[in-house]
Amino acid sequence: MEETGVDATLRIPEGTTEIAQRQFMNNAAVKHVHAPRSLRIIYPQAFENCPNLTTFVMEEGELERVGGWAFSNNPSLEMVVLPNVRDININAFEKCPKLESVIIGERIFVLLG
Q1: Rounded to two decimals, what is the model's pTM?
Q2: DSSP states of the chain as a string?
Q3: What is the mean pLDDT of the chain?
């Protein structure tokens, strides 16, 4: 994983297929995340409680699942782009008061509770 520039953009390398449970939990340094098209699963709590995270953008790909609380408790999160995601846990974006836009494409199959 590579952090670049003053704006703390985290660029997840192409070829990465999973973001582990709690992998970036409580990370105050990350403001923007750019995820590759190879990403398939974002496990629960992967980005929970990242107080400065404002955007998460994934390239067009085949994301299968976003786990519970994956992006929860992020007070600065404003936009998430997950094109072609299939399953999103219903509480994936819990307690994100500034979240205005979640772009998911047409592939969404089910919101898991």
Answers
A1: 0.89
A2: -EEETTTTEEEPPTT--EE-TTTTTT-SS--EEEE-TT--EE-TTTTTT-TT--EEEE-SS---EE-TTTT-S-TT--EEE-TT--EEETTTTTT-TT--EEE--S---EEE-
A3: 90
